[in-house]
Please model this.
Amino acid sequence: MSSGTGTVTAARAPGDRLPRLASALGSYVGFVPAVLLLGLCFLVPLGIVVCYSFWDTVDYAVVHHWTLGNYRYFFSVGAYVSTMWATLWVAVLATVIAIGLAFPFAYWLSRYVPRRVRTPLLVLVIVPFWASYLLRVYSWLTILGEKGVVNRFLHWAGLTSHPLGVFLYDRPAVILVLVYLYFPFGALTLYSSIERFDWNQLRAAMDLGASPLQAILRILVPQIRPGIITAVIFVFIPILGEYLTPQIVGGTGGVMIGNLIVNFFQEAEYTRGAAISLLVAGFIVVLLFVFRKSLSTKEAYGA
Amino acid sequence: MAHDVEVLSRGARVARALLNGYALAIYLFLFAPIVLLVLFSFNANRYGTFPITGWTLEWYRAAISDYQVHGAVTTTLKVAAQVTVISAIVGTAAAFPLVRSKLPFREGIRIVLILPIMIPGLLIGVSLLVLFVSTFHWQLSEETAVIGQSVYTTPFVILLVAARLQGFDNALERAAADLGANTFQRLRRVVLPLIFPAILAGALFAFTLSLDEFIITYFLIGANNTLPIYIYTQIKFGITPEVNAVASMLLAGSLTLLAVAFALPQLVRRARRAIMRVTTA
Model:
């Protein structure tokens, strides 16, 4: 890439003789709008949130007085701390289930499906992923709700006499919907890495006496480990910041940390809300940093 | 591929049959909720659920004549149009130096540019809320929502255009330079036409993301409603077939746009080839 640019410079046409410094600066001009937008409206606000989380609120006004009070407050309320642990727990469970479901699917797609129908079948998995996020959460209300499909079916089958409320408004419903939402991401990432696997290795292992399960666990899985890590990260991180799913199907039992953040900001408790936001953001940034090697954009957005 | 024609043992055949069934179940799981939602929007039953008591367009008629839906659609389209223009311009401009200039910390810069995709939208929403309301004391409006959504959609355009620029044959530009084209002419006549499909796909992508965006908009739009916000406020009062109809229309709209966005680069290439054939014949 750089050698190509160098040649263009060397072959500069007459009438195009800019001083070297100006041309070097000129090559960065394209960044100006992005710096304005992403700098002023993304990094600066994040910086302000960092400051807010260490500032104090007195009589609903933010005072520039440095304190750890917002963090201390968060960790002093039992309900908040347990919500934090519950969020982590829900994220771990939903990620494990989503990836667990996605692995056999990706295996099936790359091993047993003829090459020419693979792409259409893969696109079919991604289609719901690109359909509106809100609608995908909402659609579960029509299934799990009191008048929902499941209750109708149970009633029709004569198994229940009145609608059950147990399917909605608790943690299992949240986990189910999260698995539904993020399965495509897991399937896509796993597929792109299993697809490159040489199946002859699996056959060789089985010829040498390994059972199919042994062959998969000891030959296939170690080789696609980077893909598995990428899939886990890309499913786990967005779940940490979930608001809509617990809000719509979670009820009081399914509250996650995203709901806490929204509540604080809606009640204009900016400094306390900022502290919780920063806890989540900080955790995510640490995860991204630790796993930065497995997050090449090619893996993630190869679709 | 060898394994496409491979003779499978009995065990492998059983495994394949099991996995075929499993994959079918997965597709059912993925599509059942969406299909049911659309199905119920045509169901005469006014509780928006089973049993199906007859087919009707009543709910679509009701939705289309609802003035709240009108307002929400207008706002959604206005916001999406602005977001599309901003992210197409900003994203395309940023893709050039990202791919072409000698950057120190290229990886770091790339990560910052795509960070808005990695960070949950909730955090983008609340941090801009703090900036606009608590720091600047601005009134929330469509414009503040446009800014927030653009932060989230621009990285997608950057990724798409950068990918296209990466595959760009630099010899073409060198040839244009040898023939006397200056920087602006090279950009205008050689580079932009070649990366145009990626810009267009990115713009359509940004438009679709904007149509469906919920959480950032929820924080930043103030008193206005976009379609997702309208649907959200409605489902707080329970599911109605009318909301199902609005939802189905939004779904159809965004899926159509996405299909176009994905098919676009190929369509443009084909159209160009057809034009070339006609003009050279």
About this structure: Chain B touches chain A through 100 residues (CB under 8 Å).
